[in-house]
Each structure stands twice: as C-alpha cells, then as structure tokens.
Amino acid sequence: MTNDTPFDSNVYYEDDADTAQILEKTVAVLGYGSQGHAHAQNLAESGVDVVVGLREDSSSRSAAEADGLDVETPAEAVAQADVVSVLVPDTVQPDVYENAIEPNLDPGDTLQFAHGFNIHYNQIRPPEDVDVTMVAPKSPGHLVRRNYENDEGTPGLLAVYQDTTGTATEEALAYAATIGCARAGVVETTFREETETDLFGEQAVLCGGVTSLVKQAYETLVEAGYSPEMAYFECLNELKLIVDLMYEGGLGEMWDSVSDTAEYGGLTQGDVVVDEHARENMEQVLEQVQDGTFAREWIAENQAGRPSYTQLREAERTHEIEQVGEELRALFAWAEEEADEETEAVTADD
Ligand SMILES: NC(=O)C1=CN([C@@H]2O[C@H](COP(=O)(O)OP(=O)(O)OC[C@H]3O[C@@H](n4cnc5c(N)ncnc54)[C@H](OP(=O)(O)O)[C@@H]3O)[C@@H](O)[C@H]2O)C=CC1
Ligand SMILES: CC[C@](O)(C(C)=O)C(=O)O
Ligand SMILES: [Mg+2]
Ligand SMILES: [Mg+2]
Predict the structure, then answer these.
(1) Per UniProt, where does substrate bind (predicted)?
(2) Ligand 3: distance of its center to the CA of 37 in Å?
(3) Which fold has domain 11-189?
(4) Alpha-helix runs per DSSP H in 81-180
(5) Which among 131, 187, 305, 316 has the fewest CB atoms less than 10 Å away?
(6) What value of ipTM does the predicted structure carry?
C-alpha cells in the first residue's frame, strides 16, 4: 500500500495485490453491458474463473458466448460463484438482487458493486454473513476493456461496506488488479463518498454541466446569426482538444498552450458565464444527492415507466447540434477513421 502522498486516502497498485485472493474463486458477472463485458473479459484473461449471469432471452447472451465465456441465468451464476459482481443497471439491481442473488448467496460470499447507489440508498440490504465491496473504475466500461487490451490501466476506487470474512479489502484489491485498475492506481474510499461524488460529478460536470454549456453556447451563436458549423466547431469539437490538454497536464498545460488572448478572455469571462448562481445551483444539486432527493426521484421515475427520461432523451437526440455534428463529422477524414476504429473496438468488445 502506498500513501507517501499529500492525500488522506490509501492508493494501491499491482504490487500490493495478492491475486490468489480472486484466482482461487469463481466470479459471477451479472450483466454484459458497458462494465460487465469489460470486467468479465479482463477477469477471464487474467486467469479468473468467470461465469456471466444473463436472462434466458438476453440480447447480450450471444456476445458473451462469442467472447468464449460461460453464460448461465443470473440465479445459476450466483449459485456457482464465491463473488457476485453486480453489473446490471442500477435501476434493476434491487429486483435482480431479490429474485436471483439473495436466494443463492452462501455465507462468506462477496457482493461486489461498481457503484454504491443501491447500498448507500438502502435499496439492497445484504445479509450480515457476506462481504460487500466495491471496485468502481473511473471510466466508461469500453475504455476499461480497451486499456486492459493495450496493457494500460484504468484508475479505480475501492470500498468495503461489510467485511465478515476479514479479507474483503484484499479480495477487492485482487479483483481491481485482475480487471486492470491496479495498473493505474486504486484509491480507497467509502460507499457514501463514491456514490455522492459520482452522482454529483456526472450531473454537475461530466454529463449534465458540459452538455448544457455546449448546447447553450451553440444556441447563443446560432441565434446571433453565426453559421451552425462554426458554432459546432467552437463549442463542441474543440472541447475535446482542450480537455485532452487538461487531462495530460492540468489546467496549467491548457493555459500554456492557448494564446494569451484566449487565456485573458477565459480568465475574465469564465466566471461571468459560470457565476455565483451556477455555484449555488451546484450546491443544490449536491444537497439533493446527499439528502436522497435525487435517488427518490430517479427510483419513482423508473417505477412510473420513465416518462420524463424518455422525453428528455428524445429532446436531446433531436437537438440541432446533433444533426449538424453528424453531417460535419462525416466531412472530415480523421473523424471517419476514428469512428471506424471506435466501432471496431466496441464491436469486438461487445
Ligand atoms: N457505464 C459505465 O461505464 C459505468 C457504470 N458503473 C456502474 O456499473 C453498473 C453497471 O452499469 P452499466 O455497465 O452502465 O450497465 P448496462 O446498462 O450497460 O448493463 C446492461 C446489461 O445488463 C443486463 N440487464 C439489464 N436488465 C437486466 C435484468 N433485469 N436482469 C439481468 N440482466 C439485465 C443487460 O442484458 P439484457 O440484454 O438482458 O438487457 C446487459 O447485459 C452500475 O452500477 C453503474 O452505475 C460504474 C462506472 C461506470
Ligand atoms: C460519468 C458517468 C459514469 O459515472 C461513469 C462512466 O463513470 C456512469 O455512471 O456511467
Ligand atoms: Mg462515474
Ligand atoms: Mg455514475
């Protein structure tokens, strides 16, 4: 374990992991979607005995079987396993838990998650005689798979909610190593911290904040009479290049790389756009994550058949920027090559 850093959290790497803690066990991976296909294939290629749990009529069955994996129903997979990795969507986990997992769990088994939503908000209440752990890659699943194939790592989080065996941390670390996360680094946290920061991050910045910023800036330019293609390039396309610089070397590398004009304009106008009201709104978003308001809303939305979600998705899909982007990306050879590579990687992975 390494903690010669200025941070409070422990950070683990491959050398800290005793992979025997997982190589000696059978892992049931429930779900073969974004995270499921990556965990199942990475575990299997690392030498772990893996069984994938999918419904009889699951659209993912053929992909998992084509990838050479043993596929059973979720109930049968859990019955065979020592570690149950719950990688079906958060919204169906309570149902899958009740019907397939709980009746087939043995004392000393492990319930393993990639996100803490259902444990933290008490939608799943495991028995006291099993370990409950989390290994949460900080990345979309397809990159977890791609990085593993390229001998690279994906940073991840590790948390233990319940440790009845006394070896929960060691086993979770071995799991993190065999899916490739410990190659990059695994940060120890809690279910509460992972759940609340993950939800806040995806709502305020990664998925919500960024898309709203892009759409509103695009609309501002187009409504002022500028061409949609200029608006697309300025407000969406170039964002990737700017974020790549921040990813590589922090805000500093980005500021160093742009012109002084951009730096001065950015430093003076950034806080005008994302002002103290945006900050207050962020605090409200965080509060609703912390006090369970968002979780209750999302659970109720699913129970009602997702009426708002369906409408919001449709509005996003039909926004003008999507049409403009599709047409523009098709004009550029580099985009076509990248899209082809991407499709090949995803098709190969799925
Ligand atoms: N997406 C990501 O990159 C990240 C996800 N996570 C977490 O990982 C977990 C999994 O998320 P994600 O990978 O996005 O999930 P997906 O939506 O990609 O999962 C789809 C898979 O789940 C199966 N599935 C759906 N419903 C059921 C059901 N009722 N019974 C059995 N199988 C079912 C689907 O099979 P079928 O064909 O039968 O529908 C499919 O194989 C979540 O906890 C999420 O928060 C964490 C970090 C990042
Ligand atoms: C950013 C979205 C995410 O939290 C992720 C890929 O980490 C998710 O829930 O998919
Ligand atoms: Mg996340
Ligand atoms: Mg998330």
Answers:
(1) 259
(2) 17
(3) Rossmann fold (3.40.50)
(4) 93-96, 117-120, 141-149, 168-178
(5) 305
(6) 0.99
